[in-house]
Amino acid sequence: MTRTTLAAFATAGVLLVLVPSTGHGQAYTAPRTKSGQPDLNGFWQALNTAHWNLEPHEAAAGPILQLGAAYAVPPGLGVVVDGPIPYKPDALAMRTTYAANALKEDGEIKCYLPGVPRMMYMPYPVQIVQSTDFILMMSEFATAQRTINMTTSDPPPAYTWMGWSNGRWDGDTLVIDSAGFMGSTIGALDPEGAIQVRFLDRAGNYHTDGLHVIERIRRTGPDHLQYEATIEDPNVYTRPWTIRMPLYRRVEPNMQLGEFKCEEFVSDLVYGKYQKGSGR
Question: What total of structural domains would you count in the chain?
Answer without folding.
Answer: 1
